[in-house]
Amino acid sequence: MTVSVVLFTSDLRLRDHPPLSAAVAAGDYVVPLFVRDAAIAASGFAAPNREAFLRDCLADLDAGLRERGGRLVVRSGDVVDVVRGIAARARAEEVHVAAGVSGYAQARERRLVRALEADGRRLRVHDAVITAVAPGAVTPSGGSDHFAVFTPYFTRWSAERPRRPLRAPRAVRVPEGVPSGRIPRREAVRGVAEGLAGGGEKAGRALLLSWRRSGLADYAAHHDDLPGDATSRLSPHLHFGTLSPAELVHLAREKYGPGSDAFVRQLCWRDFHHQVLAARPEASAADYRERHDHWREGTSAARDIQAWKEGRTGYPVVDAAMRQLLHEGWMHNRGRLLVASFLTKTLYVDWRVGAQHFLEHLVDGDIANNQLNWQWVAGTGTDTRPNRVLNPVLQGRRYDPDGVYVRRWLPELAGLAGRRVHEPWKLGAAERAGYDYPEPIVGLGEGLARFKGARERGRERGRD
DNA sequence: GCCGACTTTTT
DNA sequence: AAAAGTCGG
């Protein structure tokens, strides 16, 4: 009798799961294991919204395994200790896991290899399943270990054929003698956003099918429309791996109208950021490119940061997006760009501050996508144009022309009709008194001057 | 080392 | 029209 352990990480699904399929094919018994990692719980990466979504995912994964005669084994603690103990208890020969890209995942893999080897067991690391094309699968012809610019990457990536998505195994036999453990209830998590989406592979597939039917074709035309909310909303499922990006690429390439190409391009952006992080794991905290910034600090910066977090900057479209984040644990992509630009360029606050706040709230909060997109906006990342600044008023007028999005999230401005809602400071004093809404905490020109001046001084210092 | 090209804009 | 440098072939 042979037994394998499958360690689930960011791949909480049964379909298109190479480690699970390999383990089922290799032996008589499989222990599907998820470890609630004590190190992650103690880190700044824990967040109630993701914890709640995760519990949905685990419950659904367990249900799917039970439909196949198996069950999920859940434990808490140090992931290496737990895997080692479970493997010993089940007398497993091998442990299967999908490769991860973050520094943490890479270190975890190294520790697992060592620990298991000491016991005479083997860790089988499968290609990353968090992306459609594995990090490192395509590299520039010059010999670098990763692409630093999106477009050449997209060209090479597009020529790759993502692996054919695997079917879910028909049956999974779990050995007796390994207790299942308890999947904690979602309802017990405190501080969860009211409008949080539900997790799990079933929920993900339902969302995918309805979106393919009614959203994908118009994606290219409407994905930037803030009130239209026409993005896929699949990001939390991609983060937790309840949907397979390889499957999504196959599906979108079957051409569901003009939106397919634009959507595939967005999927490539995920892969792009993951291959950058896999090669430069330190980019989760350090500037990918040093721009000699000296970000604002001290009490005045702290006050601005607080206003930004609460959605009280006085710039309606910024505040609306920040309130959406607090309310849903999610933010429209266009909103993410504009609030990030506002924090880093207009308020000239360190991108890490914003990235951390996003990680505390986003249900899809993902180290690769979040940190590297923040760096992109801040100008310290892979953008070769580090001075790009988004003007919140123009962004509001362009992507929320009638102010519908702003009024949806800012009840205090709900009575202010039309596009005037983007510039409440232009109202006459009498009218303005009717709205309990802050004056802008910074002038756009003032913010821009501060950013450019600081960058210039930093560059001169850097040349010395 | 040349040179074409570069998600997301602003004026 | 000018981004503002820098990547990648």
Automatic annotation (TrEMBL):
Its cofactor is FAD. Pfam families: DNA_photolyase (PF00875), FAD_binding_7 (PF03441). The keyword Cytoplasm does not apply. Gene3D superfamilies: 1.25.40.80, DNA Cyclobutane Dipyrimidine Photolyase, subunit A, domain 3, HUPs. Keywords: Chromophore, FAD, Flavoprotein. The lineage of its organism: Bacteria, Bacillati, Actinomycetota, Actinomycetes, Kitasatosporales. InterPro entries: Crypto/Photolyase_FAD-like_sf, Crypto/Photolyase_N_sf, Cryptochr/Photolyase_FAD-bd, Cryptochrome/DNA_photolyase_1, DNA_photolyase_1_CS_C, DNA_photolyase_N, Rossmann-like_a/b/a_fold. This is Deoxyribodipyrimidine photo-lyase. Residues 2-131 form the Photolyase/cryptochrome alpha/beta domain. SUPFAM superfamilies: Cryptochrome/photolyase FAD-binding domain, Cryptochrome/photolyase, N-terminal domain. PANTHER family: CRYPTOCHROME, CRYPTOCHROME CIRCADIAN CLOCK 5 ISOFORM X1. The keyword tRNA-binding does not apply. Belongs to the DNA photolyase family.
